[in-house]
Design goal:
Oligomer: single chain
Helix content: 10-25%
Order of helices and strands: EEEEHEEEEEHH
Distance between the termini: 38 Å
Structural class: alpha+beta
CATH architecture: Alpha-Beta Complex
Shape: globular
Low-confidence stretches: none
Largest sheet: 7 strands, mixed
Length: 159
Amino acid sequence: MGMTSAGILLYRLAEREIEVLVAHMGGPYWVGKDAAAWSIPKGEYDPEVESPLDAAKREFREELGVDAPTLGYAELGSFVYSSGKRVTVFVAEGADFPASGFTFGEFELEWPPRSGRRQRFPELDRAEWMPLDVARPRLVKGQRPALDRLAEYLAAASQ
């Protein structure tokens, strides 16, 4: 069985278009990259120990350094990457959530490779609101279907 992750995709309606909060991945590999270099704030969890929503909220806090807003979250669905990793995404309308004041979580990596030198890097280096059509090519490929599902979810909710 592949790894399991859970994340939160906040959305808001701005000037009649849907915007989502996504984050640029940190670390040396992602510096200077934009296409397919952004992600929904998410992370791995053990389904035997933690519920997907609890994991999504914990990961939001770990990655962005702020608590996930207290909102009514809906499970958008689970999306499987080509690697087999499964990501369960929760959505909520977060119009009042500012994309600022973040203290990004960090990870340690040998850098440069084979140097023996360990360095700390942020898991994410920025997060911002962006329209769906702007977010789509920026998001990692395995998460793009979540944007389509969000658009369908909001269309169904408005009927």
